Amino acid sequence: MSAPIHSLDLTTSDFDMIESALETQEKILAVQARAGGDAANDRLTALRSVMRRLRRQRRQPAVSLSWGSIARGLFCNKNAAPSTERRTDVAGGCLGYSSPS
User: Fold this and answer.
1) Cβ neighbours of residue 93 under 8 Å, at least 6 residues apart?
2) How high is the pLDDT of residue 24?
3) Residues of the chain above pLDDT 90, percent
4) Region Disordered: start and end of each range (predicted)?
5) Phi and psi, residue 27, nearest 5°
6) Is 90 a member of any domain?
C-alpha cells in the first residue's frame, strides 16, 4: 500500500530552501552511513528518492530551441563527429578538417 499523495503550492524560493535542507540532511546521513549505520543507509536511500521526486516536480522554465541551436547541437558536437586522424579542433565552434598530408 502506498502513502497518500499531497499537493503543495510552492514558490521557487520554497523549493530552493527545501532542496538546500535536504542536501544538508543527505550529507549528514552519508557520513552516518559510511560509519556503519544501517538505519542511516536506509534513510539516505529514502531521502534520495524524495529529492529525485522533488526535482521532477519542480517547474522547469520553458526553453524553446531554434533551428540554429538544434543544428549546432547535432553538427558541432565533438563526440558526434567521426573519429579520423585528420580531425582538428577550430576555436570558437565546429570541427574543421585539415588538408590531407
Assistant:
1) 72, 76
2) 95
3) 29
4) 82-101
5) -65, -40
6) no
Is 24 inside any structural domain?
yes
Contact 58, 52 (CB under 8 A): no
Percentage of the chain beyond pLDDT 70 is 67
Is the pLDDT confidence value at 33 over 70? yes
pTM above threshold 0.85 = no
Instruction: Provide the H-helix boundaries in the chain.
Output: 12-34, 38-57, 67-75
* Chain-centroid distance, C-alpha 65: 19
Residue 6 is placed in which grid cell? 499531497
Residue 46 lies in a domain: yes
Alpha carbon distance 7, 87 (integer Å): 53
Q: Report residue 84's pLDDT band, with 50, 70 and 90 as the boundaries.
A: low
> Is 43 part of any domain?
yes
Number of domain units in the chain: 1
Q: From residue 66, how far is each of 19, 60, 72, 80, 81 by CA, in Å?
A: 32, 18, 10, 20, 21
